[in-house]
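> forwarded from #structure-qc
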């Protein structure tokens, strides 16, 4: 079974410079909260990601590639919320 710690560690492997806090609801939706080492006061929360989407490392890697670019825009103030739909597809 995929645990919050496993998911967080996978994201840390692919998103250097970000901490990831993972919580899983009773309905198996995952909330990801990222904070940047560069700007620790900037938190990015992504709610409602399906647990089965994050159950394999390849999916996390692909999602991380998109999120890396999205986070750069968010932290620069160019965007208010990540386009998570693109990251999840």
């Amino acid at each position: 079974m995929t645990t919050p710690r496993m998911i967080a560690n996978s994201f840390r492997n692919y998103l250097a410079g970000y901490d990831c806090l993972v919580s899983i609801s009773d309905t198996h939706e995952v909330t990801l909260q990222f904070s940047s080492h560069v700007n620790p006061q900037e938190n990015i929360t992504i709610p409602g990601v399906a647990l089965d989407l994050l159950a394999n490392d390849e999916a996390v890697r692909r999602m991380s590639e998109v999120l890396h670019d999205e986070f750069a825009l968010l932290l620069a103030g160019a965007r208010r919320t990540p386009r998570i739909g693109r990251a999840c597809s």
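QC bot note: The chain is about 40% helix and 25% strand. The domain at 4-88 is CATH 3.30.160 (Double Stranded RNA Binding Domain).
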